[in-house]
Amino acid sequence: MGLSVKLADIAPCQKELKVEVPLDAVEAEFEAVYGELKKVARVPGFRVGAAPRDLLEQHHGDTAREQVLKRLVNRTLEEALSSHKGLDLIGRPEVTEVNFDPKKPLSYSARIEVAPKIPAGPYKKLKLTRPKMEVTEEQVAQVLSRLQEQQSQLKPVLESRAAEDGDYLLVDLTEQKQGASPVKRRDIVIQLNLQKDPEGFLRQLVGMTPGTERTIKLEKEKLLVAVSFKQLKLRELPKIDDAFAQTVGPFDTLEALKKSIRENVEQEAQRHQRRILEQAASERLLEGWLFDVPPSVVASQARRVLKDRAMDMMSQGVPASQVQEQAETLTEQAKLDALKQVKIFFILRQIAAAEALSATEEEVKARTQSLAAGMGVPVEQFERDLESRDLLDELVWGIVRSKVLDIIIREADIVEDSNKK
């Protein structure tokens, strides 16, 4: 086609293509487009397919120009990019500065982002610190205690006494907000946990006895709550013995349950060690590999980090208004975290290439089956979901990333830290 293509660096990881399409190519494309339009376009006074070119231009010129421009840019941009081998493109090119006149050559610019050129940095013999892994009887006892709590039951208190901290109250509630109809709720169980009572509602229930009523005013919500105390209850914990072990899983004895708990605690400790080592390895890599990264990738990752962080805060009970108040701080922190994450991605990708690491079909299949089983969905459905959401590449990268980190940690100079993390 005789394109004129010039490529220039305009910023780190950013280049600009200047493309000029010769006039004969522009004219040829118009001929092709008008030839197609003539077969289908309607022009007053002519049957379809019989209208002359000048009337087609008069009635359908805008449509023709739009199609010619779109076709030429798409085709020539692809040709221009392929003429410069080795461009590791990130995202889609942004076409700007289009100069289009049917009687002149077409010219435009395309701003593109490319993967950074990364100078080789150290990734073997990194000095890392690993927290000491130790499974104690105290940890086993804590898990047993949580299981005991889960298996506990609420039992009525037979003696007649007033409610106190730690009790459970079976109540009926009637909530009355100014200007609204009352809302009644029956057989609600309230725990008098005075350590978690920021509004002082629970403190006002202390001292009540079954069969009594009390109205409590919540100033902040401008709400009146009428409490009808029906029954006092206590949580009864089961005895931790062989019979208890049989109720929480496929265990014949308490010792078998304890053994399973120790194994689970040890596995979690190993996962914790791995996370600490991966984090430490990332910090060392960031210190030893210095390069620029594509701004659009960082911006995209920052938006993702910010969204995830806001969702985490709200899932923990932080009001949306409070999250919004911290928006500026959260945004700045998200940018810093995103920059680190993007740099680590390119570093690990470079190491993967140097070590010729990839994910095999068997590994991808095994990972897919494992994730599907964990989510309780059929493998076929999980695979369709991956494809529809374009997440297969992320799954593959997760496998490769683990292999890269395996090498880094295996080759590292690791010191055991006796302090618990």
Task: Give an overview in words.
The chain is an alpha+beta fold. It has helices at residues 23-40, 53-82, 137-150, 242-248, 254-288, 295-315, 320-325, 327-354, 361-375, 379-388, 392-410; strands at 4-11, 14-21, 89-99, 106-114, 127-131, 153-156, 168-177, 183-191, 213-218, 223-236, 413-417. The strands form 3 sheets. Strands 6, 7, 8, 9 and 10 form a 5-stranded antiparallel sheet that branches. Strand 7 and strand 8 (183-191) form a beta hairpin. Helix 1 (23-40) packs across helix 2 and helix 6 packs across helix 8. The protein is extended. The two termini are 65 Å apart. The relative contact order is 0.11. The mean pLDDT is 91.
Short description:
By secondary structure, this protein is of the alpha+beta class.
In terms of topology, how is this protein built?
Layout: E1 4-11, E2 14-21, H1 23-40, H2 53-82, E3 89-99, E4 106-114, E5 127-131, H3 137-150, E6 153-156, E7 168-177, E8 183-191, E9 213-218, E10 223-236, H4 242-248, H5 254-288, H6 295-315, H7 320-325, H8 327-354, H9 361-375, H10 379-388, H11 392-410, E11 413-417
Parallel strand pairs: 5-11
Antiparallel strand pairs: 1-2, 2-4, 3-4, 6-10, 7-8, 7-10, 9-10
Helix pairs in contact: 1-2, 3-5, 4-5, 6-8, 8-11, 9-10
What share of the residues does DSSP label as strand, in percent? 15-25%
Largest sheet: 5 strands, antiparallel
Find the count of extended strands (DSSP E, 2+ residues).
Answer: 11
Gyration radius (Cα, Å) is: 34 Å
DSSP helix count? 11
